[in-house]
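Contributing new records

If you add data, match the layout below exactly. Sequence lines come first and carry their own label; structure lines follow with theirs. Keep one chain per record. Anything else will be rejected by the validation script.
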Amino acid sequence: MTGNRKVYSRRPMTGIKSKGHSFAQVNQWRLSDLLSATMKHNAEYPAAKIETIYVCGSLAEMSREWVEEPLSNGWQFGAAYAHKHRAPVYCNPVMDANNPEPLNRIAVKLISHKEGWFPDCEDQVIACEAWKAFKAEWEFETDIPLLSTPSKTGQALLWENFPRGQQFPSLPEDVERIIRANSTQHRKEQFWFNEEPLYQYDGRWMYAALATLDRLPVGDPIELEPFESFKEYQPGWYYCGVMIPNNWNHIGLLPWLSEDGWEWPVRPGSFFEGWFCEPELTLAARSGWCINTRTGWKFAKGRPLEQWAKKLIRMRKALQDEAEKRCKEDKPHAYLDVATKAPRQILNHAIGSLHARGYEREEIISEDNWVRWLREHPDIVERQDVERVEGGYIVPYYAPDDSPLSINMPHWAATIWSLERARVAQWALKCDGKEGRPGPEVLVRINGDAIYSTAPLPFEDNQNLGQLRRKA
């Protein structure tokens, strides 16, 4: 059944090399000066060539003006650019003319970006110390070098940590289309507005815990037989008709893609239908919702990400333990708190890359073509990822990821996302309200793995990964 589809299995990463890098503070340099100094260094010390500059600062400091300033000083973008990611690549044909390797590219990455190594760390000194601490822990666990992004580093690590002796085929195109079109990531839902201080809870590194479960789809998809119902805890995507119980008085349990975007239907006695992932279907069925399966695809279940996730969990735990030890000894440890973010970034963004369509880039749509583009890209318009400029609009598009490290397994990422939403919903269902009011009157909002409420939720924090914990 696999045909020409890609098959993934354990593969050693021998020969993969890390790119040289340096650190700089955004507000201390003109970017063209920083690039020129780097190019000069590379010409004088080719054995210590710098290909990536990690800049430290805020999103506002790394403005579009700062990023585009080199373009008026002889530099060009060496790759298509999307400003919201703050990761431009530059080349300088004139300065490269006498170099043995013309058109060398220098990447500039904001290390404090939500997709970077150390989110919210805007200080160069702390970032450098955090990098040293994390790198030491990384090298203790693996021989793979650190690559330029957490996502690519996580992909390389996954290749070497697939279960031994197992192969994982990619999806057939028709099944992949269904999964991509019917998968969302975080649940973001506001039940009502309250300006009073709220109880805040979130999951403790939820994705890491879920990546180790025996709940992920493996092998080839198997089409359901006529009249076959979905089976609880059997991974898959199922097209179902759903009836909400007449006495239902709590939150919605299944994400449904309407014309207005993702919703969680909740009206008692109402009916809707669509494609749903197993974890949330299992929760709905166990909560008394009527599920009528029409068709679908089921999979065997397995743990393809377990060893990979556990390795990253160990790295983070070691850094946290060292930070806690230094804190007790009244020694500086802020850089270790920052370093603990790197394993989390690797795991979370590598999981996202399994589902990604490619790299997000920017293009300019002229005024004349704007209306047609709007009609063809309603999802992008809904996300408001559009910037007005003279003569048109800057909009995103996706370039395929043809890297040999890329792994295209959207059903793994989508299942982890569904497991997260189901687990958060389970906690929300435990909140029966106060003074006889239903849970949604106590719950203010759900934001990913976070719950905000006007009353404490009834649970005990066992300190495990994936466990809900009180934050405020």
